[in-house]
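Batch manifest, entry 17 of 40.
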Amino acid sequence: MSAAGAFAQTIPATPAKAAGAPSLPAAGDRPSAAMTGESLRVRAIPPQSGPHSFVSPTLQALPQINNLPQTQHNPTKAEAPTVIHTGNWGVFNRDDGSPAGFGPVARYGTARWAEDWRALRDPANRVDPFDALKFIPFTDDKTVYLTLSGETRVRNWFETRPFLGQQKPDDSGRFTFRNLYAADLHVGNHFRVYAELINGDAAGWNGYGYNASYRTRLDLQQIFGEFKARVAGARTGVILGRQQFLDAPNYVLFARETPNVPLSWNGGRAYAVWDRFRLDAWDFVQTNTTPQQMFRDNENWNARLWGAYSSWAPPDFDFLGRPAHVFLDFFYIGYLFGGTPAAIATPAGTQNGSTIRHNVGDRFWGKAGPIEFSLGAIYQGGEFRYARSDRTRTVDAWAVNSFAGWRFSKVYGRPLVALQVDVYSGGGYSSTSGSEHTYVAPYNPSTNYLDTTTYIAPSNLVSVAPTFEFTPSRYTVLRFKTPLFWREDASGAVYGASRIYSFRQRFSGGFIGAAPQGTFAWRITPHLTWSHDLARFMTSRSLEKAGGSDGTYYLSSLAFRF
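Output type: structure tokens
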């Protein structure tokens, strides 16, 4: 990871690949400094040789906060096969592994099935007590094997005035517990079956909101089969069944990691990955987690997700005398959903119904020397259908998401100074006809991308957030940001997670408030992480007069993973 203090060292040329270890990046991938024998400064354990010279990347501690292309330097899969477990996706393994379309992956992934543990075919690569569970061969040639994985997580919250004082009770303390345990059976090079179990519970004092995303009896979170092959020079696959889906910018869609039960989907997905271009297409129905009996989760046909995603990695280049790489993405994502997330603001309050949203977007992102950046835009069309009626309204909405920061790589802690700006359209509330202009993101953008409290949602919003990130040691990460919030349409509603605040009619002016917030994560061991999120939401004077309230938010999360 990053270079700092006594832990910085120069990595030697990559050792010879162990028999059975994952192959090197695909042809056309730019060699790293370590692969070419050039010196590359990264944070590592005290000097030693061989493929185990890397500690687990900090990335694994907080996959949900990494709205940057990458918080620090990651060794590549070829450099560190025992600690980097992305698939064989060539240049799309870069940064946090998410360019490949399967979410962040380093030692562990947000989607555990995205990990590749074939390096452990070589017994010399087994350096962790849990490695015995990560590659269990059933045949002499080790092409049929089982990977076991698991997570036990405990979280607790304290909030003085939840959701700007609109959610009771005050001084709420909540507690949640969940288990996710999985088995991944690989049969040869072309087929595998993955199954994941979940259970979760919630308790505490002055609690609220303990719905089906917080509490679940033992059930199947994921179960699917995957077929893989080489087709037209691409690494292709088809995944059929219940699965987690992360192939979108995390400000569009993520895994619903704050509650106990992540989002999962039922349907099919097909992907193809060439050397510098990839394509993904899918059609899903959301898993219905409302039944509270064991193994009763089924399909919610009123919530669908479909679309296609493409990504191109142009040839590498130099910028300000340092290596640079970028990605250019184009995508279409379709939503169908109803219930509270689909409700729209009207002059009389809110109107229930269902909505279909067509999202056409692009994203240009990557690293250009010391600059880490992401710039995306989305047009959202579709229609809103009133509940118990044939009446509809067209949707005409949009969003712009940007992040740019400068990484001081030669300074202790590799600090990053950045600015994040996000704009989400609003309006259309003053009439019961005509277009609806409020952008919505129903399927859980990454919590920490916009506002860790979730008191503010990405609808009718302008957010400007100075950001500072610092890595005081190879085991810790600090991030501070202070988002300032305005309404994009100054007479429109203010939105929170799955809610439209009721004080719109009494609130004048556009400024909502500020929410200084910080995140600290400590990787106590390679398997145990303890993270803390602290925020203070400070409402504007106008919003306070309208009934809003300042409040303090704190979240502690202790997670064990193998």
